[in-house]
User: Fold Pyrimidine operon attenuation protein / uracil phosphoribosyltransferase from Mucilaginibacter pineti.
Amino acid sequence: MSEKKLLILNQQQIQQKLDRIAYQILEDNFDEEEILIAGILPRGNHIAGRLKTILDGIAPFKSRLLTIELEKQSSTLQANINFDIQECSNKVVILVDDVLNSGKTLAYGFGVFLDVPLKKLRTAVLIDRNHKSFPVTTDFAGVALSTVIKEHVDVVLDEDGEEDAVYLR
Assistant:
């Protein structure tokens, strides 16, 4: 028996949402010389890379892509990063993930930057599900989606043989 899934965003709609988020980031940081875009692996990093590409084409500032790998099942913060955390000092950081559900992943993402004085920390997600267990909100969201807790959002990006899409199942 196949599981039913409902298409929420197709490839074109995902691109439109990412374009809009990139313009919002530009407006929020127009006077900056450089911003850091920190993507949470796996799909948050794909979205961060796409946002960086868009911003490189429209923004007067430089943007740099950072990667964060979190141990999401751990009860304590465990993260691997591909940058020196001190490089973030007094800079704007945009923390990016694919779906904001409980808020735990973004809360752990915030934890990576707790010991560094940032100029600004913002969050961007493609889908905000509104099921927060943590006091986390997002600054830039593609779609706010009201779902029941049993439902699952699948974000398909850069996967072999499948077109970019967001499904609810």
User: Anything to note?
Assistant: The mean pLDDT is 93. The two ends are 14 Å apart (CA to CA). Residues 11-28 form the longest helix (18 residues).
